[in-house]
From TrEMBL:
Keywords: Transferase. SUPFAM superfamilies: Protein kinase-like (PK-like) (SSF56112). This is Aminoglycoside phosphotransferase family protein. Residues 35-240 form the Aminoglycoside phosphotransferase domain. The keyword Nucleotide-binding does not apply. Pfam families: APH.
Length: 288
């Protein structure tokens, strides 16, 4: 979905086609009429996209009822406009400062204290579920041996993850617990981007920043501030290496899908796979 098509859907939904584009990725996000409107990809033939948008609104309403600071839906439910899921949200005030990793900790603590919602079902966290699709999209651009290597890693880590004994009680998780998904407004930090909410090992939410520390250059002091605020360091858990390995596998495959159209993505894919093959857990990974 490109910006032009997203604006067509926005207009069909009754909003101004001249709205400000805030983001364009998995969804197109617009500021329109004092609200935020999220236009998803065409769900025709992909009912899971509509279900995900519907569930994101349900999650927002559940978090609101539970007292968890998070972005709030402005409409109950999702609109399906020309095949595209459209959701409408209250616009957050301007941030008062950049988000720090420690801002995540109290929000995750509150989410991790919640029981499963009563009115809808959260899916399992399918961390490795996209690997095959991403490798297929990469096609012949990547070395078939690398694709086979990642498939074998996927299968191995899926089996290992299923056998883990968690330190924390399983239950609702954010699913993509990174500082970019926290907005620090005048009243404090709030969670945003609720699409990945799921139910699984709570450790999934904590391994994200542990991997950021080891692979993406997160300052160790900032990571330590996060673990101090949360009250536990997932790196001390025996299962950390398994969830980390699963996330690294998924991250490599995700980069692969961009390789056919982006030479920098291909270079980064090769860097990541080589570091996994060599068993080097500290090789820096980069955006592209």
């Amino acid at each position: 979905m490109d910006e032009m098509r997203a604006r067509e859907v926005l207009t069909a939904a009754g909003f101004s086609g001249a709205a400000e584009l805030l983001a364009l990725g998995e969804n197109a996000v617009f500021a329109a009429d004092g609200l935020v409107v999220k236009v998803g990809r065409d769900a025709t033939g992909h009912p899971e996209l509509a279900a995900r948008a519907e569930r994101e609104v349900a999650v927002a309403e559940w978090l609101a009822a539970s007292g968890v600071p998070a972005v709030r839906a402005a409409e109950h439910g999702m609109r399906l406009v020309e095949g595209h899921p459209v959701t409408v949200w209250h616009r957050l005030p301007d941030p008062v400062r950049p988000t720090e990793p420690r801002d995540l900790a109290p929000l995750l603590s509150r989410v991790h204290a919640l029981p499963a919602p009563a009115d809808f079902t959260l899916p399992r966290r399918e961390l490795l579920g996209g690997v095959e699709r991403w490798l297929t999209l990469a096609g012949d651009t990547i070395d078939p041996a690398d694709a086979d290597y990642l498939r074998a890693r996927r299968d191995g880590f899926a089996t290992a993850a299923a056998a883990l004994t968690p330190h924390l009680p399983p239950g609702p998780i954010h699913g993509d617990a990174l500082p970019r998904n926290v907005h620090v407004g005048p009243e404090g930090p709030v969670l945003v981007d609720l699409e990945t909410f799921s139910t699984d090992l709570r450790e999934h939410d904590l391994v994200v920043l542990a991997l950021s520390r080891d692979r993406y250059g997160l300052d160790p002091a900032a990571y330590d501030a996060f673990t101090a605020a949360y009250g536990w360091n997932v790196r001390e858990w025996d299962g950390c290496a398994v969830l980390r390995g699963a996330r690294e596998t998924a991250s490599c495959a995700w980069v692969a899908q961009h390789a056919p159209a982006n030479p920098k993505a291909l270079t980064e894919f090769r860097r990541r796979v080589a570091s996994l093959r060599e068993g080097d857990p500290e090789v820096r990974w980069y955006p592209f």
